[in-house]
Amino acid sequence: MTPAPVTELPLLRIEALTKRFDGFTALDNVSVDIKPGERFGLIGPNGSGKTTLINCISGAFRTEPSTVTFNGEDITRLPPHVRTRRGIARSFQIPRPFRSMTVIENLMVAVDFTSGHLTLSVDDHRDQAMAILQQMGLAAKANAGVTGLSQVELRKMELARAMATRPKLLISDEAMAGLSGSEVDEVLDLLIKLAGESITIIMIEHIMQAVMRFSERIMCLEAGKIIAIGKPSDVMANARVQEAYLGT
Ligand SMILES: Nc1ncnc2c1ncn2[C@@H]1O[C@H](COP(=O)(O)OP(=O)(O)OP(=O)(O)O)[C@@H](O)[C@H]1O
């Protein structure tokens, strides 16, 4: 007997998402499925709706009547902190660490946030935070103050803070902006390593080489609409993408 085809449920499903600010439509009927473990690139010119889409996924913006389903659960009405506990984490374009704390203390706060009903000791918090710092190549900076970090270390710490919430889905919002070529490669290698450890990643990035190298699929938005989605080479070859995004 021929076995039934395996149907892989999406980790994230967005259905008919429209987001308006007063009369202005920032997202227009966007639907997309993201598979578990997928490396997904989100591109589009300035103002095309990328950050708005992330805010709708993370819960910062309400999205009704459209639905957002995560890991099989309708999370449309869940507030951001509950979505984080369900496994959605985002890093911010401009890192927002607690500046008076050390690197490891910043991570311990994030560990504490998602430890839920578990009563963890300070040592448990520290051990979990240190494990994340090791994973992110930042262990040597554990006891450093945040203000002494370089730009690339700050970006890695921002990603580490997101990772400390033990996400299934990590949304990386322009983690490489303003970094040098070799620093971009460092952060990219880190994100690829995390994806290899079964984290699903949505990467928003203007650095095209980085998105191309990272992504298994790319979606391009323009004026709140999906104008292309598919393999990176196909999306980049798309005439509308070239016109809208690359200005050619
Ligand atoms: N809270 C808000 N209130 C009103 N308009 C908003 C709000 N947030 C975003 N917009 C508008 O929605 C549109 C999409 O913005 P968004 O920030 O999602 O674009 P983006 O693709 O992330 O741009 P960028 O690449 O510059 O970060 C823009 O025209 C923006 O001005």
From TrEMBL:
Which cellular component, as a GO term, is one annotated location? plasma membrane
Q: Where is the ABC transporter domain?
A: 12-248
UniProt keyword terms in alphabetical order: ATP-binding, Nucleotide-binding, Transport
Q: Supply the SMART domains for this chain.
A: AAA
UniProt-listed SUPFAM superfamilies: P-loop containing nucleoside triphosphate hydrolases (SSF52540)
Report the CDD domains cross-referenced here: ABC_Mj1267_LivG_branched (cd03219)
Q: What's the superkingdom here?
A: Bacteria
Pfam family example for this protein?
A: ABC_tran
Annotated GO molecular function terms are:
ATP binding; ATP hydrolysis activity
Provide the function of this protein. Involved in beta-(1-->2)glucan export. Transmembrane domains (TMD) form a pore in the inner membrane and the ATP-binding domain (NBD) is responsible for energy generation.
**What PANTHER family does the record point to?**
CONSERVED COMPONENT OF ABC TRANSPORTER FOR NATURAL AMINO ACIDS, CONSERVED COMPONENT OF ABC TRANSPORTER FOR NATURAL AMINO ACIDS-RELATED
Instruction: Please state what the protein is called.
Output: Branched-chain amino acid transport system ATP-binding protein
The organism encoding this protein is Bradyrhizobium erythrophlei
Organismal lineage: Bacteria, Pseudomonadati, Pseudomonadota, Alphaproteobacteria, Hyphomicrobiales
